[in-house]
Write a structure and sequence with these properties.
The structure is a single chain. This protein has 2 domains: about 150 residues, 3-Layer(aba) Sandwich (Rossmann fold); about 220 residues, Dihydrodipicolinate Reductase, domain 2. It is about 35% helix and about 20% strand. Strands 7, 8, 9, 12, 13, 14, 15, 16, 17 and 18 form a 10-stranded mixed sheet that branches. Strands 3-2-1-4-5-6 form a 6-stranded parallel sheet, with helices on both faces. Helix 1 packs across helix 2 and helix 9 packs across helix 10. The protein binds 6-O-phosphono-beta-D-glucopyranose. The site of 6-O-phosphono-beta-D-glucopyranose has 5 residues, from helix 9. 6-O-phosphono-beta-D-glucopyranose binds next to helix 9.
Length: about 500
Amino acid sequence: MAAANPLRDPEDRRLPRIAGPCGMVLFGVTGDLSRKKVVPAVYDLANRGLLPPGFSLIGYARRDWADQDFAQIVHDSVKQHARTEFREEVWNQLSEGLRFVQGDFDDDVAFDTLRRTIEELDQARGTGGNYAFYLAIPPSFFGAVVGQLQEHKLAQPPADAWRRVVVEKPFGHDLESARVLNDTLDGVFPPESVFRIDHYLGKETVQNILAMRFANNMFEPVWNGNYVDHVQITMAEDIGIGGRAGYYDGIGAARDVIQNHLLQLMALVAMEEPTSFDADSLRLEKQKVLSSTTLPRRLDLSTARGQYVEGWSGGEKVQGFLDEEGIKKSSTTETFAAITVNIETRRWAGVPFYLRHGKRLGRRVTEVAIIFKRAPHLPFSVTSTEELTQNALVVRVQPDEGMTLRFGSKVPGTTMEIRDVNMDFAYGGSFTEASPEAYERLILDVLLGDPPLFPRHEEVELSWKILDPVLDHWARKGRPDRYPAGTWGPPSADAMLARDGRTWRRP
Ligand code: BG6
């Protein structure tokens, strides 16, 4: 027997993790999410050699398509949206495993066909009965689909195989509907087989928050209310709602983004060190943050919401939200939302977290800014420090991924003048490898059965508990404020911070 190599750690997480024999069934193949994100990510994984050779993808939709029509759609979406280059040999291998099943979500005959198709692929391509069912469909259909999967014995894995279900947000539209949705899923799949996608957790820069905090010694000592003044989490988009009126109207900025992406970002920034990075430890720490999160009493003063009206974006005139195709003229859906939350723990007491998201803002940027308190004493004249602001650590989630540390420095010259300077880390400058797309990481994790990056239903429910009172408050107030496209939201958002003596960053 060969001697074990003492230098090789069997737990070495740097070794590529490759999915074992398996396939995926994609419901909602004609939607934007499938075409722009899921399908290209599957190809990128295949191209990076991370999928098994017999990997198979079954599309399920109402369209009257043959396998070849589906293959053409997959081909076009790969060509248009894949991150990695198109290689014939990868495509040829992947396309041999493409199948299409036509049917409604409650169609018994179609689900029988789906079962036979899986059995056929198990034989022909060695998928081993291991399948993920990806529901890229509106949540109102989740119940019908998982019910059919159960009825047609697709949810229960054959011996030594696995079956998993993947769902996308919105996980409900409030706490109550989220609970109903969770019950529906839990009634069919065991909790460890349910993968809820919050694609922000698949982003490299988001995972790096944990690396930055827990692999270094210099941040943690100042990571608390003794040093931190407040935290701003911003996800700004310059795009409008595009062709997504059907999804967006009635949902709005807070449900679409704050309930999930921004509260998850906040949990990563605020949580205690987990005992390990396994799913249970990580989720437990995030959950503790979410259950300690409270809203200020006066929601009229500590929140803001807006709807974009006609304005400018990228040098072009763009229409207002109410003029977008498919939006009701009377819509009160907000396209900008900002909330203040407090985390009632020893670490964060007295440190407000400001969360904001909007469409048609000045530019596309997502960042987490930790703004530090001023030095307790400045041994300089007031005029020397006129241009010195507060120290800040900014995690640049996207674009221009990296981190910035802002601090004061002497301006060269014969007088003592102190001004802000930035120290910068840019992914492009430090790493040669491009970051994978969030969906590549998350789909691979589903196929590997690796759950840390998927929020558990407790987190989803806690996030609704935080947001529901804000949504109720807004619902009672009628119309949102307005802001011209291309600006940074309504004046009420600025007023909300001004009341606390602070201003929003203009990234
Ligand atoms: C989605 C939202 O979850 O995230 C969209 O539903 C938003 O409204 C999108 O545009 C933004 O994702 P990203 O990765 O481009 O920041």
